[in-house]
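Supplementary notes for students who missed Thursday's class. We covered one full example, reproduced here. Read the sequence, then the structure, then the short commentary at the end.
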Amino acid sequence: MEDPAIGTRYSGPAGAGGRVPPAHRGCRLPTGRRPALQPRPLRCRGLRALASVGIAIASASAPCIAAAQFAASASLKSDERVRGRSISRGQPTATLEASYDHRSGAYVGGAATAVLAGREGSGLLGTQVYAGYAVRTSNGFDIDLGIAGHAYTRRYSDGRAPRFTELHAGVSRGMFSLQARYAPNDQGRDAPAAYLGLGTSKALAPDWSLNARTGVLIQTSGAPALGGRRLRYDTSLALRRRIAAYELEARWTLGGPDDAYFDAPWQGASALVLSVRRGL
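Structure (token representation):
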């Protein structure tokens, strides 16, 4: 449930994201020539302005046609973090996720994440369902628009059981991606907030890659409810290694501007998260 990762298709809290459905989605250009596989744009949650940009780009060139596909994955993490903050009280988690991509570009999916240890023992942390539309244009842009619903249990870091909905929009090309999301009650805090993020991914060697992303969360109205602030930032740097059907990752994350986002002592601003993921 890592925070929706930039540079991959939508990944969410039950992420974030985190879900990572097929990391690559091949598509066929109008000429019939198949391009090199590239990371899917992340199913990020969006703002109307970015969505309109995506629609304009898509309409400017013919979309690719992709084959329908099912995907499922299982993952283990040393900590479940969203925007640089732990939502699992610093405890390890396990996530199961499944998704379906239709050849039209429509997709649906869901994920469930459990805490594996901790003061209250193991149990369900949260679930997520999502749906949307993604397309790759013939000039190399990946466009993604959709919606996601999140529901947590009281194993969530501050003891609440928040439920909230987010809209997402994203555009990517090559190694760069841009995402926008909007939630009327971000993390169930009765505070409307918008998130803007930028990410990049670079292949270092066969089966090795480096991923970086940074973003800012802005409360759009009401009294400051994001740890007593209206603006927060996060950044992360990850090294990934693929071994057969497994993807290993070491990700350093930083969230700011202080440690009090979830009002708990285990919410350090910086952390190293280790994870392993396998497609099923």
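Commentary. DSSP finds one helix and 14 strands in the chain. The first helix runs from residue 48 to 60. If anything here is unclear, bring it to office hours.
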